[in-house]
């Protein structure tokens, strides 16, 4: 056989093998499931749904031009020893018995955006990603900074509801859902995300899907699904097939705001006008870059967003668990803290696992990340 035919055959086999591998991988449960045709028909009632995709009202995307791609590749190959901590980060271990009967409104942070919020005597998990890596492939991506969680998953109390902001791997984790689903009463999620949960064994009657500006009640708690400026998608296709959101959570004594992932946008002032003020905001401040600032706020924008929604206490999230950007791992909290101080705003900086009581006279504010 002529050499060029051998080369053609080999290249064809390589392409075919990659195509088969791609099909096999995307069919693995970890990728979740796209909404059914019947469900997609119901999405047409949403103002956010257009051309079979969800959209933010103003143009929102990462820069994808060739020059930007080269700059990202360049930064990816650079070595930054500060992208991860060089020592075990401090963590507070949680007594599982203390979680069973909460007597005050409080939260416990698990790193990144994962929170246990106990309010009105109810236990809510917000974006509970408890896996080791924010990736569909176990060996790909940098590991969680901490070797363990402040409390074992099996020791968590019964969870009244889990709230998700969107379906990205650093927020919605297949392994976590498989481990917590038996102790969760209800999953409350943005439109379309429930399809992933159903594939992973969650009963449809346990799932409530919501559009922006829709409200629901949960045993005396008022929950509102509110806008965010981001995107969704877990596989090689199906980008923006499900909605993304932020959350307003209001109890008898306190009201909090959870930003999810978001670039800065006019929705923050709209949320502040509709639901503010808030006793505390859990506001994204990490994994940012000027090249994708439309979908992830810079830390200074985090503080401005807090002001826009009329927040009182700022708690920066989306950092201190994984490296997903090129900045040093402590930059997000240090920049957010500096900007908050310039505005004379109270900011909480608890260790992972450290309980924080809403309405307390003082909040954790030590620079624990400087310890070594």
From TrEMBL:
Catalytic activity: 3',5'-cyclic UMP + H2O = UMP + H(+); 3',5'-cyclic CMP + H2O = CMP + H(+)
Domain Metallo-beta-lactamase stretches: 124-319
Superkingdom of source: Bacteria
SUPFAM superfamilies the UniProt entry points to: Metallo-hydrolase/oxidoreductase
Function noted in UniProt: Counteracts the endogenous Pycsar antiviral defense system. Phosphodiesterase that enables metal-dependent hydrolysis of host cyclic nucleotide Pycsar defense signals such as cCMP and cUMP.
Protein name per UniProt: MBL fold metallo-hydrolase
Organism: Marinicrinis sediminis
